[in-house]
Write a structure and sequence with these properties.
alpha/beta; 8 strands; single chain; six-stranded mixed beta sheet; two-stranded antiparallel sheet; 164 residues
Length: 164
């Protein structure tokens, strides 16, 4: 088994490297996986965009995806992971997880940067309207104001438990 990932601003790549060290598995960026792994079993990590895990469908065509991790800026929830399974039509036998990553608008370009400026305002308004924020929600709010990261080994605990 190997780890395959698709990262936009580096946070998903950080998770792939952490998971690689934790599990003792090699990690490769989607599109740069050695040909000898084609059709093999993989753990896939991809960043979220518009409620989808970027690169999952392409990865699933090339490899036997056994586990999928969506990485985004929202606080984690079981509903989020199951929503990703439904949206992406990920088979029941595949483990699906979500990990809060990070966000740095300065790493974005063009239309993506413009879209996220608007989305950040919406997210910040929703969070600022709440009376109390969880630690993960505070971090998400911080991400809307500037660069911040939730990437840590602990956020991969469920994936590690699934593998073992």
């Amino acid at each position: 088994m190997i780890i395959v990932y698709k990262s936009n601003t580096g946070f998903t790549q950080e998770y792939a490297k952490l998971l690689s060290r934790e599990l003792g598995l090699p990690s490769y960026e989607l599109g740069r996986v050695p040909a000898c792994h084609k059709g093999g079993e993989v753990i896939y990590l991809g960043w979220l965009f518009a409620g989808t895990i970027v690169g999952y469908k392409r990865c699933a065509k090339l490899y036997n995806v056994r586990c999928c991790v969506g990485v985004g800026m929202s606080p984690p929830s079981v509903e989020l992971a199951e929503g990703l399974r439904a949206t992406m039509k990920i088979p029941a036998g595949v483990g699906v997880f979500y990990a809060q990553g990070g966000f740095d608008i300065n790493k974005l370009r063009g239309a993506m940067k413009l879209i996220m400026k608007v989305k950040n305002k919406e997210i910040a308004a929703r969070l600022n309207a709440k009376a109390e924020l969880s630690e993960a929600e505070r971090l998400t709010l911080e991400m809307t104001k500037g660069a911040a990261s939730a990437v840590c080994r602990e956020n991969l605990a469920e994936v590690v438990a699934w593998y073992r």
